[in-house]
Amino acid sequence: MFTGLVEHMGRIAASAATPAGRRLEIDPCGWMHRPAPGESIAINGCCLTIADGRAEAGGVLMFDVVPETLAKTTLGGLAGGAYVNLERSATPATLLGGHLLQGHVDGMGVVAGIQTAGQHRIRIAVGDELIEYITPKGSIAIEGVSLTVAGVEVGVGVGGQGDGSGKDAGWFEVALIPTTLAKTTLGGLEVGQRVNIETDIVGRTVVHWLRHFGADRS
To answer: Strand 83-88 to strand 40-43: parallel, antiparallel, or no bridges (unpaired)?
Structure first.
């Protein structure tokens, strides 16, 4: 489990195809935490297991990423030099400053708009498979960052794919404070960029139960 409070930004040192998927090497860029092999780390919101590395301070962190993760998240498209958000897994003593996250990305959205005048807001277009779980003032994670939904619109089209047009797909907006812009990768987002989305587990549970076990199900 994670809380969506990014601890540090690392950088992709290498990304190479392997028979099992892809080996991802991340330079922790001075992160004080020294994870051991087998430990879980959230990389842009994706829960990954340390395969090797960090035997000494400043050592590269290595992860094996399977095809399913590569297909459902942005990790497969990260090039060398790209920055990523890092968070260690939570413990019973962890301060829950964000909200509970599993590190299981539900899907990808596309940055459809960025407002910088006055309040810094980002609009994310998402497909029908995600929009039903997103509620006004609810919790959402973008690239592993815990945020509050500032606005949401369910698209009138059918089968929206979150292509960034904002026409057929639904969209939601979040407001970002200066600290989030400076301490996470969200400050460098660009229109058209894909981002990892994890919706609130409470909302997903309610929708699932009503759909399959609610009295009005058909």
So the answer is: antiparallel
Banded pLDDT at 57 (limits 50, 70, 90): low
- Where residue 89 falls (left for φ over 0; alpha for ψ -120 to 50; beta otherwise) is beta
> In angstroms, rounded to a whole number, what is the distance separating the alpha carbons of residues 212 and 218?
9
State if pTM tops 0.85: yes
What value does the mean pLDDT take over residues 118-134?
A: 93
Number of H helices, E strands in the chain: 4, 12
Closest CA to 141 of 89, 99, 170: 99
Residue 218 pLDDT > 70, yes or no? no
Which of 13, 77, 69, 68 has its CA nearest to residue 42?
69
Domains of the chain: 8-88 (2.40.30.20), 107-208 (2.40.30.20)
